[in-house]
Amino acid sequence: MYTVRPIPNSNRSSPMPPRTTPRRLADKLADAAAAYQASVVIPHCPQCSNSCCRLDPLVLELEWKQVRTFWRIEEPRATFDRRLATGQGPQEIRAANGLYYAHGKPCPAFNEATASCSVYGQPIKPAGCSDFPVYEDGGVIVADLRCEAVDRKALTAWIAQALGEGFRVAWSADPEFPFLITISLKKAKRST
Questions:
Q1: Domains along the chain?
Q2: Residue 65's closest CA among 118, 125, 128, 116?
Q3: N-to-C CA span, the chain
């Protein structure tokens, strides 16, 4: 949060304009990422050759309520967890740290015939489904180039346009996972 204060010892009667704080910048980045998703990524999903919802090679992080709903589990969580731990649960689900991770088999909420999600736009939809493949994280944009709808150059230009002339946009690839790129902003140098 910032405060607007008048300039001391000044004849100006109006306050100084607010500064762009790190949180405000992160919010702008999140908005730009969401707009890119809505305009570029989501429209491509129905014709994608390797839908994310097939969970190969992607991993989906889920809470118990989501697992119970998507896989139509009627037993108590403790019973399910015991079954899962002994290899008797769905083979595509692993439990860790109070969460569940699904991988290698299409999400049960995904309808292969229509290439659509039965929980799209509902509160139970996993956060990872909304965020993937472009999202704000700690004041930078992270993009997963395994999504065929994401083009690094176009995304970088999109972010630059969304944030305006006061910033220089740079990107870097993760050395261990080169399909993950980070787009960061630096204040543009003012010309004198």
A1: 19-45+132-192 (3.90.1150), 59-126 (no CATH)
A2: 125
A3: 30
